[in-house]
Amino acid sequence: MSKISIAGAVLALTFATAGTALAANPPGTASSGSADFAKANQTFKVAPLAVCDVNPDAAGTVTGASPAVSRTGLKIGETSSACTTEVVNPDEFLTKTKSVAKGAGFDLSALAGLSGGNKGPRLKIAEWTITCDATEKGTSAGWELKGMSGWTGLPQNITPGYVHDVKATNGTVLAKAKFTDTVFPVPNDGSISMTLLKITFEPSSGYTGSITVGTVACSPTP
């Protein structure tokens, strides 16, 4: 089966406000993923992987890392993150931040283990990266997915919030995969949050819950 790679970016510009506005998102944070799903009397949970948070008060990098995890029907390789604050103009106290989460070896076999015509695909992602960059002028989020297999019918150009139906061999929708779910606060303060991929199981799969691959958020710097 052929493997595909896709990438993209979203920009959030800062809008002027009449008064002081509190950011709806943190200065910067990143995680490689998490999971909380169940079938019958079995529950499978993966706490947020490789979490890091920007320290806006000091230049430097905060890192996070998680070892490979394995649950029945789901494997995720080693993951890492880095949240960096850089001083770009010390005289004006201007900084910029970058929050990055990376992962490898995503393998969702739960749907492939279903029986009969309800058997689904084995979903794999070789590598993924999600980033959130912030300056005093605004923020932007970028992402990349490499070596994807089992994602039949997925377009090469993924628009923000695109939903992909994960289907069984008989055409039944077993799960919905939402790509690059981006949230801008209202009113817009220039901050942004993005979930690279969220797979939510449909009742027809026999599973409940969801799996998340890559999340970031960041706000304009002081």
Overview of the structural elements:
There is one protein chain. This protein is an all-beta fold and about 220 residues long. It contains no helices and 15 strands. It has strands at about 5-15, 30-40, 40-50, 50-55, 60-65, 70, 75, 80-90, 95-110, 125-135, 140-150, 165, 175-185, 190-200, 205-220. The strands form 2 sheets. Strands 1, 5, 6, 7, 8, 9, 10 and 11 form an 8-stranded antiparallel sheet that branches. Strands 2, 3, 4, 12, 13, 14 and 15 form a 7-stranded antiparallel sheet that branches. The model is unreliable at about 15-25 (pLDDT under 50).
Describe the largest sheet.
8 strands, antiparallel
Question: How many alpha or pi helices?
Answer: 0
Q: Indicate the proportion of strand residues.
A: over 45%
Principal-axis shape equals elongated
Radius of gyration: 19 Å
* SSE arrangement, N to C: EEEEEEEEEEEEEEE
Helix proportion range: under 10%
Straight-line distance between termini: 48 Å
Structural class: mainly beta
Query: What is the residue-averaged pLDDT?
Result: 89
Q: State the total count of DSSP E strands.
A: 15
- The unreliable regions are 14-23
